[in-house]
Write a structure and sequence with these properties.
Layout: E1 11-21, E2 26-32, E3 42-43, E4 45-48, H1 55-67, E5 73-80, E6 91-101, H2 102-105, E7 116-119, H3 130-145, E8 159-160, H4 161-172, H5 178-188, E9 191-198, E10 206-211, H6 213-218
Parallel strand pairs: 1-6
Antiparallel strand pairs: 1-2, 1-4, 2-3, 2-7, 5-6, 8-10, 9-10
Length: about 240
Amino acid sequence: MTKYTKQSRFLIAVDCIIFGFDGEHIKILLIKRALEPEKDKWSLMGGFVKPEESLDGAANRVLSQLTGLEGVYLEQIQAYGDPLRDPIERTLSITYFALIDINKYKTQLSDQFHAEWFLLKDAPKLIFDHDKMVENAKERIRYKAALHPILFELLPKKFTLPQLQNLYEDVYNTNIDNRNFIRKISATGLLIKLPEKDKTGSKKGAFYFKLDKKKYQANFQAFLSFIPKPDKLITS
């Protein structure tokens, strides 16, 4: 096989930034690094791309190894290629973010990697440039969430309005007026109210809803009415 001559070879890796929602707060799934340098320090879940794999294929494999899940929402973000980002060997990393419902999938997590969920705002310092990767992923999610229903990947199929409000408040790191939120989201006509209630928080309970995906795709602009404005977004 003909090869390019006089060219350097280096490694390509994928790193998965895995976000979950437990009904109240956004969390991030981290692992303990198993090798030096930075052994036993907190890290994103990642791995090297195999010769026969595509980037998407490698990311799905890494995610499956950690969570046991298939068909999870997974989106490529960007590449990180600083020559000194990995002290062992020149390595390019392609990042992906994944969105999962913690309550549905938490029992499937692998014990092999000592994975642990952390509140996003209380996550520990990560190895290499992983903190920068997480910040960039948060920015991408905030942008995407204003245009597409990706945050519903974090919710169960049926959810309450308090859960939805908690989710958006956590993602945008801001407080949303409860009555204003309910009024605006009801006015969109994009949620379907279900007959059953969640009574875990009170005797009165809160009705369950689900997203009308057909209406959302036809009129997603209606959902923008309750998204916090960019000048209110906080990245910390």
